[in-house]
Amino acid sequence: MINILSLFTLAALWGGSFLFVRIAANPLGPAVLIETRVAFAALTLLVVSFFLKKSLYFMSNIKHFLILGLFNSALPFLLFAYSAQILNVSTLAILNSTAPIWGAIIGAVWTRTWLTKEVVFGLVLGMIGVSVLVGWEAINVGDEAIIPMIAALMGASVILVLPLVPFIPVRETISSDIMLSVFALGAVCTGLAYLLYFRLIKDLGASSALSVTFLIPAFGILWGYLFLGETVGMNAIIGTILVVAGTMFVTGFSSKFISKKRI
């Protein structure tokens, strides 16, 4: 029961991250927002490490940390922040849920292995879901959303942080609401959320913890509706269902669920 509650809490936090990104992306600009987000997250984790008396061993593993930070935090955060200047919260959350699909494609190419029929079926479902979302949403927001949509998809497949703060300055006066959003984004939705995620991996295993991906779009849509008054169209609902179903097939979660039912 505790693990299920933790799973929903994590999904709510990660779904909420798109809300805070949407609020702060335009006033701060993508680069400043992400630098601040990562800084708050790092400080939070450093404080936790201090109280838990855990050593980071940063210098001895600096190459690994730099590569991991480059591809697991910076680029996706930056690209999603760029996309959030135009796209709504629900669209960002749904596009983010395609990450396992892109992971399967990249993994197959990298390891030169054939995809199973189930994975291929999941990829097709996921791509159809994204096509439904992108196609209908583009009609509503205009041609200006095409590049941010692509950037968000790229952010779901590869993840990077770039030192662009000097080149993309703050655009507006920073209000208390914006700073609270950035703090919540960094400290809570990133720092504490990652602690919760790795706790779930330890307790449930990586494959079960990955099921949080299926819940994030629902919370993204909910937060956007409640706090920003975003409308929930049929494209968001259909796109979410197809993307989540595709992700379940790609990760093998659907077959595990069926086998448990038979038992």
TrEMBL record:
<feature type="transmembrane region" description="Helical">
    <location>
        <begin position="178"/>
        <end position="197"/>
    </location>
</feature>
<protein>
    <submittedName>
        <fullName>EamA family transporter</fullName>
    </submittedName>
</protein>
<comment type="similarity">
    <text>Belongs to the EamA transporter family.</text>
</comment>
<dbReference type="Pfam" id="PF00892">
    <property type="entry name" value="EamA"/>
</dbReference>
<dbReference type="InterPro" id="IPR000620">
    <property type="entry name" value="EamA_dom"/>
</dbReference>
<keyword id="KW-1133">Transmembrane helix</keyword>
<dbReference type="InterPro" id="IPR050638">
    <property type="entry name" value="AA-Vitamin_Transporters"/>
</dbReference>
<feature type="transmembrane region" description="Helical">
    <location>
        <begin position="34"/>
        <end position="52"/>
    </location>
</feature>
<feature type="transmembrane region" description="Helical">
    <location>
        <begin position="119"/>
        <end position="139"/>
    </location>
</feature>
<feature type="transmembrane region" description="Helical">
    <location>
        <begin position="64"/>
        <end position="82"/>
    </location>
</feature>
<feature type="transmembrane region" description="Helical">
    <location>
        <begin position="209"/>
        <end position="228"/>
    </location>
</feature>
<dbReference type="InterPro" id="IPR037185">
    <property type="entry name" value="EmrE-like"/>
</dbReference>
<dbReference type="GO" id="GO:0016020">
    <property type="term" value="C:membrane"/>
</dbReference>
<feature type="transmembrane region" description="Helical">
    <location>
        <begin position="234"/>
        <end position="253"/>
    </location>
</feature>
<feature type="domain" description="EamA">
    <location>
        <begin position="147"/>
        <end position="251"/>
    </location>
</feature>
<keyword id="KW-0472">Membrane</keyword>
<keyword id="KW-0812">Transmembrane</keyword>
<feature type="domain" description="EamA">
    <location>
        <begin position="4"/>
        <end position="134"/>
    </location>
</feature>
<feature type="transmembrane region" description="Helical">
    <location>
        <begin position="146"/>
        <end position="166"/>
    </location>
</feature>
